[in-house]
Specification:
The protein has 494 residues and is of the alpha/beta class. Helices cover 39% and strands 20% of the residues. The chain contains 16 helices and 20 strands. α5 runs parallel beside α6. The structure holds NADP nicotinamide-adenine-dinucleotide phosphate and magnesium ion. Magnesium ion binds next to β3.
Length: 494
């Protein structure tokens, strides 16, 4: 590998990383230190302090107090917007370093990091333009049954102090997708990144202070799941916004039932991708392959179940297998790498076990399933054909580069197959028949339907899940409103 890491990135990795609380770098009161591992080399690349109860409490108190004092929420919207825009500019100035840290921490290829991070910086700009567009409705002359007259209106207010818990599969983007609308709405935040990828959260926090986001408004604590649990229980918070597994999402819902904190959940998926026999296979084959293999399958909306219409099944599945064999798996800094490593040893073990399960269940392995290079947590893109809907590889989220494909004959059959899941996040349709596309898009129970492409995100377009894939939406105006409370004011007129 010829790539040379920037000096400033090496310097950043060597720092003693601690927590950003109330505008200061704060050490833990315990002595727990976590090794940060580069999944492409299995080497320890950095060390971070882990938060315990003291740090969680301090960070939540700081968010609470900054919110209650109104130092951010009561700032003029144009000033808040300017600071957010400046924050985006500062992140952009450091983008080369942020990309390197994302590749070292998560393993994703440079080109993938560049794309995701570029999108996320623009999400900040999108929400910075929304700060002064929070308007309610006006209900003049409401007359009640007993002939009283009222003038009424609705308004929106920030929900308060928000706990934000994010996963490791897109550390920079999953941070920004929540924090940008929360800050634009006037909320104060405490963010806990995943222990597998804590590093970019610290750069984001540092640039936020430089941009002028007041101390206490954006706090970042580095911790494991136990710190997440403490955050959820903390009575200084009004809302939890969580991205992660459905299992942890359910625990959070249970915990929040005690004080009815507001909850937004972006959870797991087992998203269907459908290729109809009228599709352009030059688009559908790479499209369906990258729907699952992008970011090594570690994508919540990965198109992990593929349904191919029976008369093109052999051609399409062979095309996808051949395409996947040419995807270079390796270190994200190698220019020709398309698939980086899996995040950790445990994720690697889990994906390998699912391949064994698929084989035992009698699925037809067409390509992959193996590991060529064990210097990192690499896994070859794997295609299973003739998968039966009751097999575990067709039902359970693997979160790795493993595709479960089968054939179908009719539209009704494939709609039933696509919806036969506890999840409902993404979905893909490849077809040139506009009527069929509309018909199937209407009938699929998923928050997102991509047609003749897969997985693009845009700040204006809401993203989120049906069923056990989550509650609420991110991005767009709906993503903004999840950080607002609505108030109705009703004035009795004489
Ligand atoms: P995870 O185990 O649920 O962890 C997510 C976050 O929650 C991490 O920060 C984790 O901390 C923390 N956490 C763990 N236990 C907790 C608890 N009891 N209370 C509060 N927080 C807790 O998920 P993951 O393995 O990191 O990520 C993979 C999952 O995320 C997949 O299921 C994927 O589909 C889903 N995901 C969904 C979306 C979406 O937008 N819908 C996007 C990305 C990923 P530690 O990691 O430090 O233990
Ligand atoms: Mg790591």
């Amino acid at each position: 590998m010829s790539y040379k890491i920037l000096d400033k990135t090496n310097k950043f990795l060597k720092k003693n990383h601690n927590h950003m609380i109330n505008g200061n770098w704060q050490n833990s009161s315990n002595d727990r230190i976590l090794d940060v591992i580069n999944p492409a080399t299995k080497e320890v690349v950095s060390k971070v302090q882990l938060a315990g109860k003291d740090e969680v409490d301090l960070a939540c108190k700081s968010a609470r107090e900054s919110f209650d004092k109104g130092i951010w929420k009561d700032m003029t919207p144009s000033n808040r917007g300017k600071i957010l825009w400046k924050w985006a500019d500062l992140l952009e100035e450091r983008i080369d370093q942020i990309i390197e840290v994302e590749v070292i921490d998560n393993g994703m290829p440079v080109i993938v990091a560049k794309t995701f991070i570029g999108w996320a910086i623009d999400w900040i700009r999108y929400y910075s333009g929304m700060v002064d567009k929070v308007t309610g409705d006006n209900f003049s002359n409401v007359i009640s049954g007993d002939n009283q007259r009222f003038h009424s209106y609705t308004s929106y207010e920030p929900v308060g102090a928000v706990g934000i818990i994010i996963p490791w599969n897109g550390p920079f983007g999953t941070f920004i997708i929540k924090v940008a609308p929360a800050l634009a709405a006037g909320c104060s935040c405490v963010v806990k990144p995943a222990e597998d990828t804590p590093l970019n959260a610290l750069i984001i926090a540092e640039t936020a202070i430089e941009a002028g986001i007041p101390p206490g408004v954006l706090n970042v604590i580095i911790g494991d799941g136990s710190a997440g649990e403490l955050l959820v229980k903390n009575s200084n918070l009004d809302k939890i916004s969580f991205t992660g597994s459905t299992e942890v999402g359910k625990k959070i819902v249970n915990q929040c039932s005690n004080d009815l904190k507001r909850v937004t959940l972006e959870l797991g998926g087992k998203s269907p991708c459908i290729i109809f026999n009228d599709a352009n296979l030059d688009i559908a084959i790479p499209g369906a392959a990258m729907a699952i293999f992008s970011n090594s399958g570690q994508v919540c909306f990965a198109g992990s179940r593929l349904f191919i219409q029976e008369d093109i099944y052999d051609e399409a599945i062979r095309g996808i297998a051949d395409f996947s064999k040419n995807l270079k798996v390796g270190n994200g800094f190698d220019e020709d790498t398309v698939l980086g490593p899996l995040i950790s040893n445990s994720q690697h073990k889990k994906v390998s076990e699912y391949v064994d399960i698929g084989l035992k269940e009698g699925a037809d392995i067409i390509s992959g399933g193996s590991v060529d290079d064990d210097s990192g947590f690499f896994f070859n893109p794997t295609v299973f054909g003739k998968v039966n809907k009751d097999m575990r590889i067709a039902k359970e989220e693997i979160f790795g580069p493993v595709l479960a494909a089968c054939s179908f004959s009719s539209v009704d059959e494939v709609v039933n197959l696509a919806n036969d899941t506890r999840y409902g996040l993404g979905s893909g349709i490849f077809s040139n028949d506009i009527n069929k596309v509309h018909n199937v898009a209407n009938r699929i129970k998923a928050g997102n339907v991509w047609v003749n492409h897969y997985g693009g995100m845009h700040p204006t377009l809401p993203f989120g899940g049906y069923k056990e894939s989550g509650w609420g939406r991110e991005l767009g105006i709906d993503g903004f409103k999840t950080y607002l409370e609505q108030k109705t004011v009703s004035i009795k007129l004489d």
